[in-house]
Amino acid sequence: MNSEQITMPLFSYSSSFASHCSLLIDLQWFADDEDAPGKTEEPTEHKLQRLREEGQVVKSQELVSALGLFLPALLLLFLAPSMLRTFLEMLRFFLMRATEMDPTKDSLIAVVFFRYLLILAWPILAVAFVTAIFSNVVQTGFLFTTKPITPDFTRVMPKIGQFFKRIFSIDGLYNFGKSILKMAIIGTVSYVLIRSDINKLLNLQKADVWIGFTAVSSIAIRMLLIASILMLILAIPDYMFQRWRFRERNKMTRYEIKEELKMYEADPQMQSRIRSRFRDLLRQNISAAVPKADVVITNPTHLAVALQYDQRSMPGPTVVAVGADEMAARIRQIAQEHEVPLVENKPLAWNLYRDTSVGDIIPVKYWNTVAAILSKVWYLNEERRRKLSA
Question: What pTM did the predictor assign?
Fold first, then answer.
């Protein structure tokens, strides 16, 4: 039997085995519908806002859980003595009246019990409640929506394919690994603390009840605090992962982005009306601003830049109007009507038109040139006033 005769059966067996396995395991189980190949573009602001309105935001549940464990445990550490005194007072009250009261007839027992329960529990419950709100607000901001809790009856009957997709997806595998890590953290902390106090625990059989209670309570509270601190540290990479996965899940195709642009883009006629209205407002501003200008720098026909300078209120010459072509002609017309001087300086007009906008102080590099123009304009205005007064 030669090597070719040996190879062919093996190849045939492996092919049949692979085809048999493909019938048993659908590789699409490992795919995620939200990670479609065509979704390569980052989500737009419109989509992110829409997702936020639906209650879909970046949030690490580990941060909520860790803070919800750490702060109540820290409060319990400080309030333990007073809580223990309250508990002993409650126990003494009921033991002293155990033979005097009938629980089925005397409602005072229930009233006293709930009063003591409220005294013992309300600080912890209040801190847990505030912590839960704070840890969510820190991550998502102030957001109120009922969309996440709206009943969805399509999820009542789970689909087997979707079930396996979620288990073997990136999120499913990540959550599985995270759960293993949390169990390892809690187990390690418990082992180290119990191991360090093993001799004390073994000798509790010889100690009284109070010493045994305080020893076990000390280990338990330390276990809670250390585990919650480690969970807080774990929440940092978890939040970064949730942020990355949120953007990956909500990526968009190029077609979706084009459709969104069409949806939010204004109608061409509406855009034309907006531009026309903007030009009207701009003309109104020019009509009010140009008469206050000290000089208008021209190109002489294509550009016009109106400048105003008040030494008492302005740190430098300020552009009050600027325009090209039709707008420049309008600025020159208003300037002539109000006897504002027109000065032709092609390089300066081009530079100011290119480097400044309405309301800007001109760049320092043009100050000397503009200062010379303003000095000449002010001198001519003074001469004209003298002639008129004479």
Answer: 0.50
